[in-house]
Amino acid sequence: MEERIGSLEAGKRADVIVVDLSGPNAIPLFDPASHLVYSARSDAVQTVIVEGKILMERRRVKSIDVEKVRRAAARFGRKIQAALPED
């Protein structure tokens, strides 16, 4: 599979995240790999790239319409609320 994976090169598949290690929970930063495994929080992830497609950039989701999902969730929430028995 060397022709498709194993290094960051044009034409190869890659999943990449960009993590901000400048936040207060990353100080002091002695070992970046250890910090990512044991201490980093999800809000430190800034950008997510899967197979070359940017799914989230600068903490903005690009792969889905967030407002459309919020509207649908609110609509389902109203349906659930309406189906619940009244006290």
General description of the model:
The chain is an alpha+beta fold. The protein has one domain (about 15-85): Urease, subunit C, domain 1, CATH 2.30.40. The protein contains two helices and four strands. The protein has a four-stranded antiparallel β-sheet with strand order 1-2-3-4, with no helix packed on it. A hairpin with a 2-residue loop joins strand 2 and strand 3. The radius of gyration is 20 Å and the shape is flat.
Primary descriptors:
Urease, subunit C, domain 1; alpha+beta; four-stranded antiparallel beta sheet; 87 residues
Shape: flat
Give me the CATH fold name.
Urease, subunit C, domain 1
Q: Helix content range of the residues, please? A: 25-40%
- Oligomeric status of the shown chains? single chain
| String of helices and strands | EHEEEH
Number of strands: 4
SSE inventory with pairings:
Elements: E1 15-19, H1 32-38, E2 45-50, E3 53-57, E4 60-61, H2 66-83
Antiparallel strand pairs: 1-2, 2-3, 3-4
Care to give the gist of this entry?
With 87 residues, the protein is α+β, with helices and mostly antiparallel strands. The protein has two helices and four strands, in the order βαβββα.
